[in-house]
Amino acid sequence: MKTYNDFLQESGEKKWQEKWEAEKTFEVTEDASKEKFFGLIEFPYPSGAGLHVGHPRPMTAMDVISRKKRMEGKNVLYPIGFDAFGLPTENYAIKTGRQPKDVTKENIANFIRQLKMLGYSFDWSRVIDTTDPAYYQWTQDIFLKFFEHGLAYKKNTPINWCLSCKIGLANEEIVNGACERCGGTVEKRDKEQWMLAITKYADKLLEGLDTVDYIERAKIQQSNWIGKSTGAELDFAIKNFEEKIRVFTTRPDTLFGASYMVLSPEHALLEMLKDNIENLDEVAAYQKQAGLKSDLERTELQKDKTGVELKGIKAINPVNGEEIPVWIADYVLATYGTGAIMAVPAHDERDFEFAKKFDLPIRQVVAEMIPSAEKDIPKEGKETVRRQNVIVLVKHPEEDAYFCLDWTKQGWTSFVIGGKENGETWEDAAIREMKEETGYQNIKSINLLGFETHTNFFAAHKDVNRYGEQRAVYIELADDERAEVDPKEVKNHDGKWVKVEDLHDFINLDNHIYYYNIFKEGEKAFTGEGIAINSDFLNDLKKEEAIEKMIAWLEEKGIGEKKDNFRLRDWVFSRQRYWGEPIPLVYCPHCAENGERKSKGEERNPGWIPLDRKDLPLELPHVEKYEPTDNGDSPLADMREFVETTCPRCGGEAKRETDTMPNWAGSSWYWLRYMDPHNDTAFASKEALNYWGQVDWYNGGMEHTVLHLLYSRFWNQFLHDIGEVPHSEPYAKRTSHGLILAQDGEKMSKSKGNVVNPDDMVAKFGADALRTYIMFMGPFDQHVAWSEEGLKGVKKFFDRVWNLQEFICSEQAYLFSEDVEREIHKTIKKVGDDIEVLGFNTAIARMMEMVNFVYKKKALAKEQFGKILSILSPFAPHMTEELWEKSGYEGSISIAPWPVYDEKYLVEDMVTLVVQVNGKVRAKLEVAADISEEDVKALALAEENVVKWVEGKDVRKVIYVKGKLVSVVV
RNA sequence: GCCGCGGUGGUGGAGUUGGUAGACACGAGGGACUUAAAAUCCCUUGGUAGAAAUACCGCGCGGGUUCAAAUCCCGCCCGCGGCACCA
User: Fold this and answer.
1) Is the peptide bond before A617 cis (omega within 30 degrees of 0)?
2) How far apart are CA A351 and CA A368, in angstroms?
3) What predicted TM-score, i.e. pTM, was given to this entire model?
4) Parallel/antiparallel/unpaired status of strands A910-917 and A965-969
5) pLDDT digits 0-9 by tens, A556-592
6) Whose CB among A167, A404, A693, A774 lies 3.0–4.6 Å from A498's, allowing a Cys bridge?
7) CB-based contact A647:A590 (threshold 8 Å)
8) Which residues make beta-bridge pairs with A185?
9) Is the CB of A858 under 7 A from strand B?
10) How far apart are CA A813 and CA A804, in angstroms?
11) Which nucleotide's C1' atom has the smallest distance to the CA of A963?
């Protein structure tokens, strides 16, 4: 008989691949009678190295899903294409002196060969290539739509220039201040760049996340990247100037605590103020030095804050009219908010650090609420007395010990504490209380410690609720001179010295522990929620209420308003390289002067005229030399015949834009093209767009959850807003796979020489084994290390599946085993459920168990074999097609119906119960599943080993969990 | 620093609405077949003690809740990923 190895050796897999292609098994058209399913994977970048074993992980997963959906009767679109513009190809072409176009063509051909070798059910009639003019015509068309709606604009902006790639980078492409791609140095350069106004969509991109089913991590990363913060913008007047300093703050409730202001060194106002700055030299020097620092240096040096005061300049705090100093410092970023802040050192860590360093005033305006212990919670119906308390840390003159109180009746253990009386300062009160309660007289030093806090509690010794406002004071005694203590003062507590190392365990009142921690760990800004104090009309309000009230006040006075801010920046959309989509705009000096403005884009960018749609695609010109230039101009800028053109509007002399689009452009809309890839009058027809709608399931790498996902959602939302696509969100569901690491647990890379080539694996074990092993390796969303031993194991499994044929005896009587049938139905359910939740490894394990079971029973009916093949076919399509055919089934297994399990086979009639005694397993019972509780308990208690453990003890309780266990408590 | 994910045999990993920890696979050991090897088939395989029945210990560490905890709660340790002077 032919073995599985024979099948592989006779190119059995190839045979089926050719058959699928000839019969167009996986080609689809819009079919209103069927429910559609659109499964998408990120299309690969066709590098010269070809596929490595990392690629097939997402592809196989989505192939399994697509194949199953197809068998379930869905109209499945599972497309593939190539994202082929970009630097690696261009650099390789430069090195080898070839044309990027030719290199790309070859690479794509190699990728297609490898992908076909793996037996994916792609619709090969829909392959797209982003470098094909028939494709990028529509990338250009969509860009013009952005332009026409005023969302593309040219701006002279400091860009991030990578010295080694010779290319400007988007903010998103910088990782820790270095180039994401090559790790090289990035410097700031001023350059005219096309920008896309993605920030206009910041809110929409954020809100859209609530409507889609993405893995949580992807949502979190996207929303971090968008970085929305809610607050207010408001103006501070400058003394003797008309100009105002506008600031953004998330904490308008702390305005009374704003004790100075900081401008970023690049702030435009500095130019206007310069005649009044008394220390202009110093300021200018600081500005210069800050400008020289790269982003990397700025972040690295963040520990140590620097800055210079603008002498002679004072700002006025609008809530209290107070004059406050103005500084410049590079901890304030020019690019965020308004580039200026109000500093509230008491409630912002950075301002606190800065204020400490430069000795600026720190004013507390929010008090933390410290909850009282459970037993001291305020009692209803009791009067509440507001009282100021001082907590005093009294340090022994010689030893490192503190005077503490032990309140025997209340069960409190605390530092010295007492009330502050009217007219007293906190320090006065602390000294008085210290003398009254300890008798000590002479102090060496005294300091306030930390901030004021509030506590609400029931004071049993006075039978009232107290709302305590407390501060802590640290006192170091000078000597041990001690006066007589009035017994009245100490009737509730005993005093004693506690060593510093015992303090933590001794003190049990939460508010005292709070100050103990500050004493131990040092003071810091209080940035949490609390109660407004020292804030006039905000006093006693909670954070949210105070923010609301302050914003209302600012709006009423006309000096500020509610405002949201985003971390997200507009998208730098031009690159100075050859191998990208040309930007279809020309600059016409004539139209810049007198032209009529036909769109928002032309209003925003005077002189920039879009090409007529009939002149698209604007093809990349053929050039011999396309090396990047050192001056930062695109290589196209040197080509007169490309640059010099006529204006599509007035016919006068004009110049083409010579920058090209970034790598991300082609992938920002590609799934739409899959719906209608050959359309030459639109990027896709309305019919196709309406039929295929949203991508039902998009799987891709975690590395793309910020950039590609955000950009493509942005394009889709824009196209939706202008009525071009039916859904606002492009992808209904997004999942991610983990990386496949090399055998050594490292990332696969050419330089490490640990790359595994799929061609070799397919030659050795077959595509089915490779596919299935990749799915079996480990949890789909986690990283897993490659192991060829594991792959061997899967191959062995297929040998066993192949040899199942031996158990089928079609000539003889119908060999039907109820046990096997039950096993198969359980497996059908498990495999079906697991595929839906990406549990491929457990689905395969279940099928292995099933096959092992059949080997034990050595009996299999033909229909049963058919079901086994069907559920295995999404993983191993070639082998199962072959066996399907050999078993005499008609047609392709790829479109055979997915088997349906029968519920009746899922319920067991006999179950194994565990009997526990005091939580330990002592016996097992084989019983009918529907046995009564009484019977089961009786049986359990009669078990020999149970009797042994229960003997001589009282049975307190017997618990029966149906179908699972009996638990005896003795 | 903040946010997120994870830590289970020699290995990859199952099991997380609390209920037999270690499914499945790899590796290892033993056996059958063979002149021999490979392949294949069968058995054993968390640790310790024991011939066995069985007992005790075991899911990063320390506590807690519960008849019962890998799973829930509190406090830590380690690894990975994202963000990071964003006001």
Assistant:
1) yes
2) 19
3) 0.90
4) parallel
5) 999 999 999 998 989 989 888 899 999 999 999 999 9
6) A404
7) yes
8) A178
9) no
10) 17
11) B19
Closest to A586 in 3D by CA, of A648, A534, A526: A648
pLDDT tens per residue, range A145-172: 999 999 999 988 777 777 777 777 766 6
**Phi and psi at residue A439, to the nearest 5°:** 85, -10
DSSP 3-state assignment of A658?
coil
pLDDT grade, residue A298 (50/70/90)?
A: low
Q: Do residues A101 and A925 make contact, with C-beta atoms less than 8 angstroms apart? A: no
Mean pLDDT of A228-232: 91
- Termini Cα distance of chain A: 63
The token duo for A143 is 């860009």
C-alpha span between A875 and A60 (Å, rounded): 8
> What is the pLDDT, as a whole number, of residue A140?
98
A648 DSSP 8-state letter: T
Report pLDDT for A926: 81
Q: For residues A468 and A386, what is the distance between their CA atoms, to the nearest angstrom?
A: 6
Pairing relationship of beta strands A75-77 and A571-572 according to DSSP bridges: unpaired
Nearest CA to A93 among A577, A466, A594, A537?
A: A577
Q: What is the ipTM of this complex?
A: 0.94
Cα A422 off chain centre by: 54
Within A 688-707, residues with CB less than 7 Å from strand B: 702, 706
A42 contact partners, CB below 8 Å, separation of at least 6: A58, A83, A667, A699, A700, A701, A704, A708
Q: How far is the CA of A622 from the C1' of B87 (A)?
A: 51
Question: What tokens does A484 get?
Answer: 């007589």
CA atoms within 13 A on the CB side of A561: 2
Which chain B positions have some atom within 7 A of a protein CB?
A: 3-5, 12-15, 19-21, 23-27, 39-42, 54-56, 67-69, 81-87
Cβ burial of A1 (10 Å; 0-12, 13-18, 19+) is exposed
Rounded Cα gap, residues A537 and A557, in angstroms: 14
Give the model confidence (pLDDT) of A5-19 as tens digits: 999 999 999 999 999
User: Alpha-carbon torsion A835, A837, A843, A846, what sign?
Assistant: negative
φ/ψ of residue A362, rounded to 5: -115, 115
Q: Residue A41 pLDDT more than 70? A: yes
DSSP A218-237: HHHHHHHHH--EEEEEEEEE
pLDDT for A755 beyond 50: yes
Mean pLDDT computed over every residue of chain A:
89
Residue A293 identity (one-letter amino acid): K
Q: Torsion angle, CA of A270/A271/A273/A276, rounded to 10 degrees?
A: 110
- CA dist A631 and A425 (Å) reads 67
Three-class secondary structure assignment of A686-743:
HHHHHHHCCECEEEEEHHHCCHHHHHHHHHHHHHHHCCCCCCCCCECEEEEECCEECC
Query: Which residues in range 884-943 of chain A are in contact with strand B, contact meaning CB within 7 A of any of its atoms?
Result: 912, 914, 916, 918-922, 924
- Is the model's pLDDT at A945 over the cut of 90? no
Find the length of chain A. Answer: 970
**pLDDT of residue A217 exceeding 70:** yes
| Cα A880 to Cα A170: distance, rounded to the nearest angstrom | 48
DSSP label of A575: B
pLDDT of residue A149: 97
Q: What is the pLDDT of residue A459?
A: 82
> Does any strand B atom come closer than 7 Å to the Cβ of A227?
yes
Q: How far is the CA of A704 from the C1' of B5 (A)?
A: 17
Which whole number is the average pLDDT over A382-411? 89
Residue A296: pLDDT over 60: no
CA dist., res. A780 & res. A585, Å (int): 45
